C-alpha cells in the first residue's frame, strides 16, 4: 500500500489522507507491531506514527481499540482474542473503504448502492 500524499511539491510538508492515518493508528493500537515495524512498513518516522495515533484518539475517542498502555501482558483470554479479531475486522473494513474511495476517485464512478433503487423487472 502506497501512502497517499497531498502537497508534496513546492517543498510543503506532506499531508496524509485521513483513511491512511486511521489505518496506521489502528494497526499500531492493535498491538501487533511496534512503531519501528510500522515505520519501516510505510516509510514513516516514529513522530509521524505518534501524531497519527494522537490524531486518531482525538477524532475517534469512543473507539473500542484499547490504548497500548492499557493492554494486559498476561495470557490472552477469550475477551482479548475477540478484541483482537474485532480490531482486525475494523482494519479490514477501513482497507475496503479506502479501496472503494480510491476506485471512485480514479474512475469517477460512484459504486455505492443508491437508496430507493427499484428491483429489476422480471
Descriptive labels:
122 residues, Arc Repressor Mutant, subunit A, 2 strands, 52% helix
Q: How many structural domains in the coordinates?
A: 1
The CATH class turns out to be Mainly Alpha
Reported by name, the CATH topology is Arc Repressor Mutant, subunit A
Major beta sheet, specifics? 2 strands, antiparallel
Terminal-residue CA separation = 43 Å
Structure description:
- This protein is mainly α and 122 residues long.
- It has helices at 18-29, 35-42, 46-59, 78-107, and strands at residues 5-6, 15-16.
- The chain has a two-stranded antiparallel ribbon.
- Strand 1 (5-6) and strand 2 (15-16) form a beta hairpin.
- Helix 1 packs across helix 3, helix 1 (18-29) packs antiparallel against helix 4 (78-107) and helix 2 crosses helix 3.
- Mean pLDDT is 77; it is low at 66-74.
Topology:
Layout: E1 5-6, E2 15-16, H1 18-29, H2 35-42, H3 46-59, H4 78-107
Antiparallel strand pairs: 1-2
